[in-house]
């Protein structure tokens, strides 16, 4: 699969010397969904701004569809749609004109049928003659999405798109994202809702303090870094873990009524069989057993924490 967005050692230093991006290198494939995760101030929005031409990188190179975002700005920008964090719309303009004007900005021919279909898809058709100031916050967010899609972009950036929006809009947005991916559109998502990234992304990138800590297939990342927990409900509570079980990564839970055993999913042997046999030898009776896989959120927090410690 060919690369749609190529980022080569991108740097961004602001006046005063603050380094927002410290040599980010990343290749984003055509038709994939990449979730870019990172704490506040990590550099996510700065990176998106540089790719979209809102801000120029201080060093390195960025290409969209093979077009350099600085030297071939118009061609690169015409391929990109951006749904920003902030709602910044002309309050007295009508919804229809707002979306149609965005298409014209990119030199696209007038296509009222396309705009109509877009507004209907986003439940905005009955609001087409309303002024922006008459809309709710969720409806304004829908207008931002319509603006981003008006010129048929091949790359769509969603910068914290579901922050503060209702459940219905969130559901509609992910349906549109899936439809666009089916059409081969490349989608880059930043979000604080890590469960969303876990649900829809193909790959996960983690950025912290302007540096890309990793980019990996979601399933491979969770298999490599995830851990599982075996929760053992006990027939009778324990006051403490027996000394003979000290070799196992065990913890007491629920006031001694359960044991939690942590193990590496990638290990050749989990040690579960030996643990169960050891419990039986000690006369500890099991009532129930269940397992839990580490979530992407736990992996993300661990990565960022390790990165901060290394710094």
UniProtKB/TrEMBL annotation:
SUPFAM superfamilies: P-loop containing nucleoside triphosphate hydrolases
MF (Gene Ontology): ATP binding
Residue span(s) of domain ABC transporter: 5-234
Keyword Nucleotide-binding: yes
PROSITE patterns given in the database record: ABC_TRANSPORTER_1, ABC_TRANSPORTER_2
Record key words, sorted: ATP-binding, Nucleotide-binding, Transport
The protein's name: ABC transporter ATP-binding protein
Organism encoding this protein: Litorisediminicola beolgyonensis
